[in-house]
Amino acid sequence: MTEQTPLDLAHAAMIADESDDAARLRFYERLADSELFLLLTEEPVNENVSPEVFEVEDTGFVLVFDREERLADFVGKSAPYAALSGRIIASLLAQQGMGLGLNLEVAPSSILIPPQAIGWLHDTLGNAPDETEAKIQDVMPPVGMPENLLSALDAKLTTAAGLAHSAYLVGVIYENGIRTHLLAFVDAIPGAEGALAKAVSEALVFSGIEAGALDVSFVRASDAMAATLAKWGLHFELPQPQEAQELGRAAPGSDPAKPPILR
Known about the structure:
8 helices, SseB protein N-terminal domain-containing protein, SseB_N, elongated, Alpha-Beta Plaits
């Protein structure tokens, strides 16, 4: 039996109980975070990709697969494709008002996702967290955090490989008297703060937790606060990437500043 993928498992949990909003949110989170293989009509040209488009009841759908082998099984022959993240594909399709066919006919996670759902996913991923400043008065162990949020954070931080060394979840009291929980990243690389804060925000949203339930901060390992966090906090180790190797021309979508263009 073929090994089930994370999307297979998330899809199975979603369809097991259609009233389970949390399971549906987790499926869309896995979809956004996954690398997907988009079926094309021809090889990519620079940053332009030309996907195969199928009409279903006057609505255009593109086809993606979460494994190269599944794309090959569906097509039955060699075919051009582009490997893109689910969030990039959602952004492209939302602009075109198109839907998404995932793993059609080749996996248990086979599903047609309509344009309305793709638009919702794109809008949800586009929500940026608010920035505020507050001084911490006291730090304590985290208490009463929902298990589904802890699991979502653990899964989400695995997608942030190399953006920081680690993170600590703690309870805090600010000087203004507000009590809340804080996820502090240790030794984030310069410029990665926004991406890390957004990853935490997405973990909250896709866990069904109201925004603002978890603050985010950044410290250096040499800061005195880092030792306090290590004493009281729940530790998350972020994966570290392998040593960078020299690569050839980047594939479409690999540069976040230059997303591919649908033709």
